[in-house]
Amino acid sequence: MIILLSNDDGIQSEGLTALDDALRSVADVYTVAPDRAQSSMSHALTLHRPLRVNELGPRRLSVDGTPVDCVKLALTGLLPVRPDLVISGINKGPNLGDDIIYSGTVSAAIEGALLGLPAIAMSLVTFKDFDFRASADFIMHLLGQIRQREIPPKTLLNVNVPPIPKGEIKGWRLTRMGKRHYSENIVERVDPRGGKYYWIGGDDLGFAQDDGTDGVAVQEGYVSVTPLQVDLTNFELLQNGQFPNFAWP
Prior knowledge:
With about 250 residues, this protein is of the alpha/beta class. It has one domain: Survival protein SurE-like phosphatase/nucleotidase (Stationary-phase Survival Protein Sure Homolog, Chain: A, 3-Layer(aba) Sandwich). It has seven helices and 13 strands. It has helices at about 15-25, 65-80, 100, 105-115, 135-150, 215-220, 235-240, and strands at about 1-5, 30-35, 55, 60-65, 85-90, 120-125, 155-160, 170-175, 180, 185-190, 195-200, 205, 220-230. The radius of gyration is 19 Å and the shape is globular. About 40% of the residues are buried.
């Protein structure tokens, strides 16, 4: 098996290294990742300037661009072979519910799915005291399942691992996206020249306690695996006749 690794925390991230170390025993691994942290870049592509690629070691490349830049470059000519699977992570912090809209980690996996490959995004649900051992162990078991049951086309798996020792994890659940709550604060300040500037941010206020969602699964001590599709069409609205055809012009 040939696997492409990427992330949004940058090529020096310990989470990426942990994933690389685990997978090299079972696959040929190529790593193409941003040269610096690119969190919350979503599906941004760099179109206004050229991209530069640096070889840091065998099959290990850094790109001065976004996570999506990395995957697109890798799959459209940068690599000498076509991978069988794209894995993005292990991210430092959750990608639960609404987070996935903004996530560079998830978007790297989405780009893999858009380009015709099965893909996985993986995150450790904590911002401190990182221990990636349980996450790396779970991905190895998940690979075994993928070999038996292929990921459908244009689909990716969004994996979130609770920040507890492997022995305390209760198992894993197939989940749906939940709803995250943030305070949505915008901080306005003034620079020394009198110009206004803004910080976008917001305190994490938790998530809706809805059964079957990713946030609840992680809260209860399970690894959450959410299947996502790249087709954003609301088929229910398309088919229920709520907006019937009308004459125009």
